[in-house]
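fyi for ur records
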Amino acid sequence: MRARAVLGGVLSSVAVLVIGWQVGGQTATTASPQTSTSDTSGSTGTGTSATSGPASSGSTGTGSTGSGTFLGSVAQTRYGPVQVQIVVSDGVITDVTAPQLTDADGRSVAISAQAAPVLRQEALQAQSADIQAVSGATFTSEGYTTSLQSAIDQAGL
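which gave:
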């Protein structure tokens, strides 16, 4: 019985690590080829992303009928920076990605990896930053919604 419990714990840990690794690889590959618009509101975030400064090219939004890609400001959390990017088509958020998620240690990476798909789905359904926090990922959720709101503001939605 004890061996079964240990094996279950090991398999669960491996699954979390694999999911985190896959999500981390996806955000790295999807973030680089897209053009983006960055936050110009003078955020005090100190992220090291190359896309956190003024963008040299990017899409522009024109109110509720705008289209383009909008990069939210970097939200600093206790466990590292969080940044969200949205794609808007005809005033509708069609995609949400997170080029930066908390990365202070392996545990925060694993938590963010589990929370990111849930937060993404919530944002797509709500079409706003008024989304539920993921239990156990409070800091990631707060940073995600802060950066998401910044991107939505840039889009003029």
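DSSP finds three helices and four strands in the chain. thats all i got for now
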